[in-house]
Design a protein that fits this description.
Layout (H helix, E strand, L loop, with lengths): L6 E8 L9 H12 L5 E9 L1 H12 L7 E5 L16 E8 H10 L4 H16 L7 H17 L10
Parallel strand pairs: 1-2, 2-4
Antiparallel strand pairs: 3-4
Helix pairs in contact: 1-4, 3-4, 4-5
Length: 162
């Protein structure tokens, strides 16, 4: 059974209609699984957005004019910067999931919606830890790690063709 970090604070906010979306407790469980054995303490935020906000964020931060499934924003806190009250280190960063894109992809890929959210949450959390997939070797390593984490949660291989 995955336990996750010793201290984990995951703030989930919904800026899209909540009908059919996973509960905050599910997102916390998926993040805990991704971080298990990799980090002892973590503080991060997850925001579920609609297409308009997802597109605006992707355009602003990545220069791509479309909404994407998940965006990861690792925290970049300079030494000596005083954090706001209630924010403790290690502050990992933020994940933004675009609900309409996630739903469309789940339908197209014939995956359960919750399983797709779990995959993208794990994927995004690994990005916050520094994992990447810029080349084939990195992608292969990251995808295998995602498969292992999701399998421990009882979720099928997200990269298997359906």
């Amino acid at each position: 059974m995955t336990k996750g970090p010793i201290r984990l604070d995951v703030a989930v906010s919904y800026a899209a209609p909540r009908a059919g979306l996973p509960a905050a407790v599910s997102f916390r469980k998926w993040v805990a699984a991704a971080l298990d054995g990799r980090i002892r303490e973590a503080d991060l935020a997850i925001r579920i957005v609609g297409t308009k906000e997802g597109r605006a964020l992707n355009r602003h931060y990545r220069g791509k004019d479309y909404a994407t499934n998940v965006l990861s924003f690792p925290a970049d806190i300079a030494d000596g910067v005083k954090l706001p009250k209630g924010v403790v280190m290690p502050l990992l960063g933020d994940l933004v999931l675009c609900a309409p894109v996630v739903a469309r992809e789940a339908r197209e890929q014939k995956k359960p919606l919750a399983a797709h959210y779990a995959h993208l949450t794990v994927h995004g959390a690994l990005h916050l830890l520094g994992w990447d997939h810029q080349d084939a070797r990195e992608a292969e390593c990251m995808e295998q790690l995602e498969r292992d984490i999701l399998a421990a949660l009882g979720i099928d291989d997200p990269y298997r063709e359906h």
